[in-house]
Description:
The chain is an all-alpha fold. It has seven helices and no strands. The chain has one domain: Arp2/3 complex 21 kDa subunit ARPC3, CATH 1.10.1760.20.
Amino acid sequence: xxxxxxxxxxxxxxxxxxxxxxxxxxxxxxxxxxxxxxxxxxxxxxxxxxxxxxxxxxxxxxxxxxxxxxxxxxxxxxxxxxxxxxxxxxxxxxxxxxxxxxxxxxxxxxxxxxxxxxxxxxxxxxxxxxxxxxxxxxxxxxxxxxxxxxxxxxxxxxxxxxxxxxxxxxxxxxxx
Length: 176
């Protein structure tokens, strides 16, 4: 079973990296967070958080915008893992849910579950960024507000639109 989990983590990491590099020119609009969340939803919080940590470990090492300060990099890896943890916990809670009959309700739930961890992610990364560069946290939050709003709004839409059909399709594949 360990080999299967390692393979799942590797495949999901490859998906996050491929989509992040493809969207490198679009600031703060990425599919990584959704993919990490879905990995957690389908395979549990440990697998999901591992996908988040390893994805950012690699992306931070080979980032088209340059590698971040190691402290920011570690904070980003840990903050990304939150999507996998939230996805894993939600997956356990919704294990017997019929996605076909509750599409709209689930879309709203997933949109919210994309938005809330993104607020936390942005607060963590902005706080660490401020600390690393000796800036007051409030300045970093205001300076990063536009990026945060784009990130949070994009995740709200991405999770709301893509979660239900992606999870429903992958559930069929995983069960098959």
